[in-house]
Structure formats: structure tokens, C-alpha cells
Amino acid sequence: MGDVSDRVCLGADATRAVRRLRGWQLRGMLVCAYLIAGAALAADDGPKTLNPADVQFFESKIRPVLVKHCYECHSANSKIVRGGLQLDHRDAIRKGGDSGPAVEPGSPDDSLLLSSLKHESFEMPPKGRLPDDVIADFAKWIENGAVDPRTETIHGKLKPVDWDAAAQHWAFKPISNNAPPEIDDAEADWAKNPIDQFVAKKLRLAGHAPAPRAEKRTLIRRATFDLIGLPPTVDEVHAFLADDSPDAFAKVVDRLLASPRYGERWGRHWLDLVRYANTNGADENHSLPNAWRFRDWVVQKVNDDLPLNDFIVQQLAGDLLPVPNDERAAGDLITATGMLVIGPKMLAEQDKDKMIIDIVDEQIDTVSRTMLGLTVACARCHDHKFDPISAEDYYALAGIFYSTQSMANRDFVSKWLERPRPSKEIEAQRLAYQPRIDEAKAELKRMKKARAKATEPISDADLKKQEEVVEKLTKEMPAFDMVMAVDEDKPTDLPVHIRANHLTLSPDVVPRAMPTILTKTAAAPPIQNESSGRLQLARWLVSEENPLTTRVMANRIWMWHFGNALVRSPSNFGLQSEPPTHPELLDWLAKELVRRNWSLKDMHRLIMLSATYQMSSEASPAAEVEDPENRLLRRQNRRRLEAEPIRDSILFVGGALDMTMGDIAANTNSNRRAIYLPINRSALYEMFSTFDYVETSNHIEQRPTTTIPQQSLFMMNSPIVIRQAENVAKELLKNSSTDTANSDRQLIGMAFERLFSRPPKEEEQQRAQRFLADADQNLSSVEDSEERRVQAWAALCRTLIATNEFIFVE
């Protein structure tokens, strides 16, 4: 556990900090911001590797547009390269043509390509200006450095993928049935389970030894954040310290896995992958009022430990499985398919055929990256440039989703599909209620007929009143719970769309099928003419022969426990990926996942009860030089928490966290857990974006970790932090005694236990006491001594919450 004394000013500097207690936060944090920004800039001088997320953005948002609208005149294959400008290679686009460089990475305003797309200089493409959202993608791409992986060429043309060689790629081979390696006696004394045997062998071969076991306080804090996303209580820590039994930590793990908070923590990981949000984003950004039902389904099924294979199958094809007698279970199967519907859509797109194929593309991207770890969507407009995925493979998969109904209509502003959850109770209520509506409608019809025949003197106001009665009764009809869900549509095989243009089609259709390269290992089931193929796809994804899904899922589970994955690009296992750091361990974990009936909870126990997981994060100078990224797993990784557990922990220690489960909070000011807050794709909650909750319209493979000034400013100035720090202070002061000096010492110890799960060191104790004394002196204008004491303690608690130790896990 780190020393707070080197992360927060509590000594002599505190005197200056509290001299103007009401204004010190902003000034102090501006200095911190300057230092942080300077450190970040100073560190940014090494060789760059392409971020997989940036490559994915280029492949999904930029390259297809260039291919469709620009390559005809600006590529190596053009009959005439207009203006001397090629846009089919990274170096060419940066070199530019007769008018100079086409892009200035990091500077959209200075990039000729962007001004041309806006029709501000040249007018490109000449047939008409591209949509604003496409131009915004190009601006974002340039702003983020214009990442472009198109570097390998033969005579100006990209090298084709060697399919025979690709078949030998480690990720496409069958999963090996590795036995844990033999280890020596010393390693056997350290190892707790087979995971450790794989790690120990790798360390021995590199000449390193594992770090010592983490102390118990560190271990329970690590496990509690890992499994429920909250800090342990003081009582939980003390109970663990008092338990000397050999299975003490195993009991902690079991207790946490049984907590309903577990599903909220690990369900959130899954929601990142499947791009969950509560608004549509895109053009209209309509509210998705029933999206929360899918989120609650995820939380519940994770808590229930639904086997991961069933978890995946139900989200792709739950509506096609046998209908259970239990209506709640039947409703859950429909709700699960909301995964395919919750993505962003251009609802006001007037070319509805384009809207549908764009939705299909978004579904392919989410499913292929989440389950297969492949960027299949990159083959929409051409054969994949890096992986053995052809355009035919793409449209074979696209046919499955095209044969699936995701939209309810094709109106001017289209509506996504929603389906009712079955309920015999509501069905009976509706049946009993319907005669009232029928009677009112019959009366309205009679009145219109009588008026038309002039048999009764019926005015417009009588007619209008009866119409309102019908409308009111219709609205008050007992309603089924509606969920975003898919349904079967007309089975359709698609042709290849040349350059991804749905108006330019190849003459031959491609039968619905799975990606060819993977069917060499996992035989693809036939797709009947009368079905979409979703169920066959879902079952094929989780078949034991499929070389990717179990590897991908085992890799993700490992990543969410260790911060880094065994394959560093968790959603791209293609030819551009780095091989796993421990390939035998990854395959063993993938096999173990199947052997354990795809139980996520069993995998937690396996990983967390290993000596590898329980190591301290203590660094070894020699090992850090040779392995600075800890790829050998010599120690545990020190990790910063994501946005949600940071926010939830602040509320939790202040006693204000609302533990109500389910449904959705009214707004982001709620004290509900962060997973229940609304996620607006067009206006993300500021605290989330500050702590790296990124683009919510796309699959998120792993939360990035940045260091920016706004994070420090938030921790010192946010109303959430200020309120909860005051709550902590007031709660502590309830235990104060008349002997202020002894009382302060005791309360400082209680504050450290509550916020850091450990007692303070003596130096920290003394600095905290000096801080309180200085604060009391500089708050002398506050006449009420009790109020002055509360304010001083609130300042101390706020300072402790703002430390790295509060938001990092060792």
C-alpha cells in the first residue's frame, strides 16, 4: 500500500494551503494541473504504436468513405490521379498532391482534406457534400493524430492477405489441451493452483522470482473493488484480519460473489462491450426509455451466474429458443436480444435501405469484436486488409442480421422494434378492459352515423368529447412491459455491395454463413431457408471447436482482474495483434472455462485464489528494467479505478450511496449506483468523460487510463466530493472526546481506515494533525467552534479523498 505522505500535502505546505481555505482548492489544483500536463508532455517522446481503438475507428469510419467516394480519382488504381493526390496510403495522404499535404495530424483546421470535404476550398466529392456526421468523423480522426495503418504496399498496391499463412495464425488454430508445466520445489511451495505453474515457469526462464504475497488489507481491498466495485467496510477488513484459517480469503471471495453488488460490477464490464446507452445518439438522439430493461437483465444474469455460453446465445437468439412455461423466463429470453437493438441508428436517414444495412454493419461490428475478437466490419467495402476475412464473408454474415428485424417501421423518423414481455395477468386485464373501449368506439360510430343522417342534433363539441373518451380509454388500457428486442424477418441472402454501396450490387448473392477461416476449425451448421440463421450463429460462436470465443472471453476475464490482458488487444485477435504473453496459460484458461460449464463465478475463484493474483504490486528495480510493462506477471498491477467505482466509492464512504437495484435514475444527480444513471450518447455525464468513460456509440474493448488536469480538479472541487467529505467528517466527529489531541489522533486513524482500509503511518498521523491545527487557525473567522472543527475535518477528508490512494487499487 502506498504512502499517502508522498501523494498529498499534509505538512508545512498545508499551512499555505489552508490560509485561504475557501479559495485554496482551485489555485492548488491549477498548479497540479500544470505539473500533471507537463509530466505527460515530457513523457510523450518515445516510439509510437498504433492504438487498436484508433485503428478500428479508421477502418470503420474513415477508410470506407475514402474507398467509396475518393479512390476512383485518388488511388494508385485510378486511371488519372487527380491533382497528384493519392488517398489510399498513409504516406501518400500525408505527402499530399499538387496543393500540399492533405492532412495535418492533430490539426483539423489546417488539413486540406477536411476543408475540401466541407466544400470550403475544393469541393470533394464533386457530386455533393458528405453528411455532417461523416465530416465530423474525419475531424475527430485528424484531431486524434490521423492514425492510418495502411503502410504495406507492392508497387503502390496493398499486399493481399496470405490465407494459407493466416490459417496458421495462433488465434485461428484449435485450442491446445495444455497440461500445467512441471515446476521445482520452491515454485511448488509458492503455487496455489495451475495458473501459478504457468506463470512460475515463465518467470524462471526469465531469471525472475514472483513478488511476495500482498498483505491482507491490500488483498481484501483489491478483491472487493474487483468483484463489487466498492471499498470494503472497516468491519469487513477487521473480520478478515482476525480470520487465521487457511481458507480466509476464499471465504471473502465467496461472500463477494454472493453479493447483489457483484452483478452491478461485472455486468458493467459487459455493457461496455455491447455499447449500452439510454439515448440513440446519431442524428435524432431519441431517448431509449426501455433500454434499462436489457441492462437489468445483464445484471441479474451475471448475479445468477448464467453460463457464459447461454448468456451469449440468449442475447443473439433468445427469442428463437424454446419458450419456457415460466413467463418471467420467457420474457427474459426476449429481453436478452435487446443487445442487438441498443446501438445508435440514423433514424431520420431518408434512404431506408441504407439505414437498415448500416444497422446490420453496426451489429456485425459489435458481435464480431465482442465474441470473436475480430474486426469483421472492416470487410464491408473490400476484403479485410489485414485478416483473412473477405467481402463475401462479411455479406454472408450480414445476411443473418439483415434477415433479423431490428426496426418497427420505416417512417420519416423510424422507430426501433420493441416487443411485449408475456404476462397472463396483464393479458386478462386487457381482455376485461377491451369492452369499455369497444363500447366507446361503437358510441362514437353511432353518433357520426346519426349526425350524417340528421336523425339526432349532434354538434362538433359532442363528437369531440366522445373522441376524447375513446382516446383516454385507449391510453389507460393496461399495458405490457415493452422491451427493445429483435424478431425474425424475411430470410434474405445478400450480394456483395461494391464499395459498400447498397445501390451498387454484385450480380451474385452470398449464402448466409460463418466466416470461412473459422469454419476450418469449427464446422458451420447449415442455415435453413426459413430462418435468419441467428440461432445457428449463436450456437456456433460458443461451440467447443470455435477457436476464438473461449479464448476471447478467458482473456477478458483475466484483463478485468489484472488490468492488462494476456492478449493486449482484447477485441482484435487478428494478424495485427500481438501474440499472448502466456499462450499456454490462455489456452488452458479457455479450456477451463468450458470444463467449468462456462461459469464466470468459478473462473473468478480460480483466478483470485491463485498466488499470481494475490501477489503484491511491489516493483523490483531489476525486473522493471527488463520488463517495465510486467508482461511476465512478476507482480500484481497497480490500477486506477474506472469512473463508476470512483464515483460510487465517494458516495459510499460518505454514507450516501443509494443501493436500490433496477430501473433507471431520473438524472445524473441521483445517488444511485453509477450503473443506473442515464447514459446520454450526445451529452455524456461530465464526471464519466473526465475519468475515461469513452465513446458510448461503439464497443469499448478496455477503458483507457489517462492523467489529465480535470481529474484533479474534480477530486478537489466537485460538489459530490465536497458533500461526502463533510459527511465523513461529521460521522467521525460523533466519536470525538473532550481531549482534542487524543481524539484527533483516534479520528485520523478512523479516517484512514475508512478511506484507505489501513491505519496511518506515524508520519502521516503527525502531518494530518498539523493540517487540522493550521486549518483551525486559518478558520478563526468562523465563530462557532463546532462549525470550525467540522470545516477543518471536512478539508482534511476532502484532501484524503483526492489522493491517488483513494482511486487506485494496489
Automatic annotation (TrEMBL):
It comes from the Bacteria. InterPro entries: Cyt_c-like_dom, Cyt_c_Planctomycete-type, DUF1549, DUF1553. It holds the Pfam family PSCyt1. This is Planctomycete cytochrome C. Residues 41-260 form the Cytochrome c domain. The keyword Kinase does not apply. Keywords: Heme, Iron, Metal-binding. GO terms for molecular function: electron transfer activity; heme binding; metal ion binding.
